[in-house]
Amino acid sequence: MSSAAVLTPEEMQALRQHAQDLGEKQAAQTLDLTSNDRGMRKGEKGLSRALGLFATRIQTYLRAMVKKPATANAEPIEVVGPEAGNALFTELAAVLAVRAADVGIVGYLAIDSVMAFSLVERAFGAGKGEGAAPTRKRLTRLELETVMPFVAELVGNLSKALSLEDHQRFGHERLPTSTEPELPNGIASIGVWRCDVVAEPLKGQVVLMLLPPLVEIATLSAKPQQAAPVSQEGRIAQHLLAADVTVAGTLGTASVSVAELLALRPGDLIRLDGAVTDPVVVSVQGHAKFEAQPLQRAGALAVTVERVLK
Predict the structure, then answer these.
(1) How many CA atoms lie within 13 Å of 204's alpha carbon, on the beta-carbon side?
(2) Segment 212-238 mean pLDDT
């Protein structure tokens, strides 16, 4: 068997780097959204389109929840400063911080007291008071535990509305109850999106507070992705990377005469030139490329690569 390399280690590394560069070039361009009013409004058109899909998902979720018709009417996005943003926390009954992987908190999703108490009434089977305006804004601990799963479902629907991949889906976390919530430092403005919902006996308002990273994520989700032009070198690399190759693991070899070969019968043993503990040679297209150790995984034979052969 020939051990001549199909590609040298340097060529393999160059190919890997080229593949990585292609992925980076074809990825969506990052928007330059700053945390000020101008930056917030820069992607407002695409943002409104994305949040319109979110409103539709809220309506569908409520309709399935109460088994009755539902409406969800979104208001235009309002850009406010940090002082108004912090004051908004006090007006909301149940708030979850929306968290994105590798970014942190990107916004806040909440419901107002009208929505919160209509959920509480539905959960505990209230009758006469259904639809009545709440006389207080603060929820008890039990009431908060009752409505938080609803807000968490809204976070999940937000991820779906933005067509996020599984690994990009938003997480959520509760805000500390020991102190009044505040926006992160350094935020000059936020977007506030309100959606009035009615699905009898439920009604009220869903509120989304968008920090700049969430504005960027939502805007990019609504923007058609355009593939970057690929050079001839890039096309060759893409075809090469997509090509199938045959990989074989050799436990050992043996030399036999033609007479011995013709005399072989079921049950005969052939002694190989290696020991059971010797590494397996893994070949690619007939060229020895790796040394590996054999193992069994999930009922199938496999090898663990231990060394790259030059």
Answers:
(1) 28
(2) 68
